[in-house]
Design brief:
Blueprint (H helix, E strand, L loop, with lengths): L22 H12 L13 H24 L6 H14 L3 E2 L12 E4 L2 E3 L14 E10 L2 E10 L5 H18 L6 E2 H14 L3 E2 L5 E3 L6 E5 L10 E2 L4 E4 L2 E3 L5 E3 L7 E3 L5 E3 L2 E5 L4 E5 L1
Antiparallel strand pairs: 1-4, 2-4, 3-14, 4-5, 6-10, 7-12, 8-9, 11-16, 12-15, 13-14, 16-17
Helix pairs in contact: 2-3, 4-5
């Protein structure tokens, strides 16, 4: 790491002298590191210019999900949702991030009922009354990445499914309340896990959130079964997703052997997930995509 003089321009590109920009920040980060804490590298701390780029990407991401929300209903196929996402994203100048990512064949993930995540849109999957579905949209715009997902209840769903969707959404709120500068990701993880358990649900352990902004998946990996005071330190400029996968039954999951992507609950009970993209600020947080 380049050692800067106090009067050198700051490493973040602000043009301000290091001593007046990130000098105190780096000293505080170093102190936490000496205490054995996991701290983010400079490459994970987004600059003002990068944050603005991520915001612009997120505006497209949100608009695409809004389009889906206005049109989704019983009788449509998940392949139709994929066409909406591709069409709207590209119309606004973006690129669907999932398309061809590590071989994923579509522009969006559509996960129904007992599908936990990474569901592949298909002409053969027709939404019907009583389904719940997660639509996970991710966008690249001018090289910047955004990512968020929403749950949709199709027609009249059962009370247990509707409650699961509500618990999953509330998990975001209790987790978000723990996002603050110089706190730990584990603070959020434990709050989410405790809330889900208190409401009779389980949290998927193997799949979590992630850093994002300059790439689709960056460090840190974000667990929602972690403990308060553990995991990476949250500092201003860190961007990551909050996306706990909440199951009505067991937390055990498996991946479809045929398609290599779709994740299911082992007991066949439903799963729900909402996802937001969050920036840690000097005073708390900013939701970038929801």
């Amino acid at each position: 790491m380049l050692r800067l003089g106090r009067n050198d321009p700051c490493w973040c590109g602000s043009g301000i002298k290091y001593k007046k920009c990130h000098g105190d920040f780096d000293a505080r980060l170093s102190s936490y590191k000496q205490q054995g804490c996991i701290v983010p590298s400079r490459s994970l701390i987004k600059t003002g210019e990068q944050i603005q780029g991520i915001r612009e990407s997120a505006r497209i991401n949100i608009a695409v999900l809004d389009y889906v929300a206005a049109h989704i209903k019983a009788g449509i196929t998940t392949a139709e949702i994929d066409r909406w996402v591709y069409g709207e994203t590209t119309r606004m100048g973006g690129i669907p991030a999932p398309l061809n990512f590590q071989g994923f064949p579509k522009s969006v993930c559509t996960s129904l009922n007992d599908q936990v995540c990474h569901g592949i849109p298909s002409e053969d999957v027709v939404l019907k009354d009583g389904d719940i579905i997660n639509v996970d949209v991710s966008t690249i715009y001018n090289g910047y990445y955004s990512d968020s997902s929403r749950m949709f209840c199709i027609g009249t769903v059962s009370e247990e499914k509707r409650r699961l969707v509500e618990v999953a959404k509330n998990c975001l709120e209790v987790g978000l309340a723990q996002v603050k500068p110089w706190g730990f990701l584990g603070d959020m993880g434990q709050a989410i896990h405790d809330y889900a358990r208190e409401n009779g649900c389980s949290v998927v352990r193997e799949i979590g959130g992630h850093g994002i902004g300059l790439d689709f998946h960056e460090e840190p990996w974000v667990s929602y079964v972690s403990k308060k005071g553990t995991e990476m330190l949250m500092v201003p400029g860190l961007v990551f997703t909050i996306e706990p996968m909440i199951n009505l039954g067991t937390d055990e999951i498996f991946t479809d052997e045929e398609d290599g992507w779709t994740v299911y609950t082992t007991d066949g009970k439903p799963s729900a997930q909402w996802e937001i993209q969050v920036l840690v600020t000097e005073t708390g947080y900013e939701i970038l995509a929801y």
